[in-house]
Amino acid sequence: MGQGMLDEEVAMSARVFRVLRTVLWVSIALVGVGLATLLLAFPRSQPAAELTIEPTPERLERGRYLVEHVANCLDCHSERDWSYYGGPVVRGTEGQGAALRVLRPHIQSANITPPALGEWSDGEIVRAITSGIGRDGRALNPFMPYDTYARMIEGDVYSLVSYLRTLPPIENDVPRPEESWPIRLIGRVLPRPYVAPEAIDRGVTAAYGRYLVEIAECGFCHGADFSGGRMFQIPGTSQKFPSENITPHPSNRIGAWSRENFVGVFRSFAPPGGREIPGHEINTVMPWSRYAGMSEDDLGAIYEYLRTIEPVEQDEPE
Ligand code: HEC
Ligand code: HEC
Questions:
Q1: pLDDT tens digits, one per residue of 199-214
Q2: Rounded-to-integer distance, Cα 232 and Cα 285, Å
Q3: How confident is the model at residue 56 (pLDDT cuts 50, 70, 90)?
Q4: Which residues are within 8 A (CB) of 269 and not within 5 positions of it... i.e. 6 or more apart?
Q5: Ligand 1 pocket mutation, candidates 79, 144, 178, criterion most atoms within 8 A of CB
Q6: Ligand with an atom nearest the CA of residue 246
Q7: The ligand 1 atom nearest the CA atom of 103
Q8: Mean pLDDT across the stretch 156-182?
Q9: Which residue puts its alpha carbon closest to atom 14 of ligand 1?
Q10: How far apart are CA 286 and CA 162, in angstroms?
Q11: Engineering a disulfide at 292: which of 22, 137, 269, 285 sits with its beta carbon 3.0 to 4.6 angstroms away?
């Protein structure tokens, strides 16, 4: 092997080294610029709307209905009693803030009763619910599903705000959730200004059913395609089980249900307190007793929507 070839090799490795070094510096610079952008540009700052929401009787009634029977606000923002079927909300703790025991036990939701939100303007509460920005401009923990609530029509958001202001006051200081850095980054990027969707007619239609399914977050537990299979554990027990496939496939239990069956099953869990269960033999995280209070028309609309989604065959049990 001649000296010339060795020199060439040395020169070659030096070049490779220089290229690698440049790549490394460029990567570091890009990561730096990326982080700086995240810190400076997000959450996208947006002033809270200046508005006064008149708490009309219609708004209060609609807000109560949405909070108690459709949206999952109180499931996350209150203590729940897992000695009852579906873990109904413990009376007297509505909205006081609690650990998210079903989802992430180490994350705390906030107190949303009047002592906590008393100083907030109506616009600030709307912004928190639909854009995930706290009163002080910080991004809320993304477990608060504001991206879902951004799909609510303006009238429904205003009704929520009116109703929250009437919750029985509870003094309860809740610590901010502790967040890992990936969650914090996601939380910074996610908040977006609320663009109210077009009003939607309430009726026993698939279109309105879809709206209800979105704000009730059925897909969060049953999967984006509603084929189920997400595992859940009952807090305080070792009971684990998956959510069901609720697509209209003939291999699914629900595939054979008529609208009357569907509405009847939900209605059979009617409050007060949900169905009492013996010990912890069998329980569920599906909030049956809350959904049982939905009107027959709304449950019917949900059924109509579920009939329009892509059928997915049931996995064979192993
Ligand atoms: C999946 C659980 C979950 C659901 C469902 C949920 N929240 Fe939250 N919410 C949270 C968490 C967690 C926080 C705390 C976020 C933080 O402090 O970073 C929060 C914070 C808030 C805040 C901000 C309070 C503050 O002091 O910053 C408001 C207002 C709020 N939620 C209202 C609602 C309303 C109204 C609904 C129903 C339409 C709802 N939430 C549904 C988990 C939830
Ligand atoms: C917190 C998670 C969660 C949410 C939210 C949720 N579900 Fe469920 N659901 C489950 C689990 C887990 C099961 C299986 C255990 C059971 O039947 O209770 C289930 C079961 C069901 C069943 C029974 C299916 C069968 O074959 O017996 C139906 C129907 C259903 N869910 C519909 C819905 C609809 C509609 C929504 C929204 C309005 C919804 N679920 C929201 C977790 C959830």
A1: 999 999 999 999 999 9
A2: 7
A3: very high
A4: 85, 86, 275, 288, 289, 291, 292
A5: 144
A6: 2
A7: 1
A8: 93
A9: 109
A10: 27
A11: 269
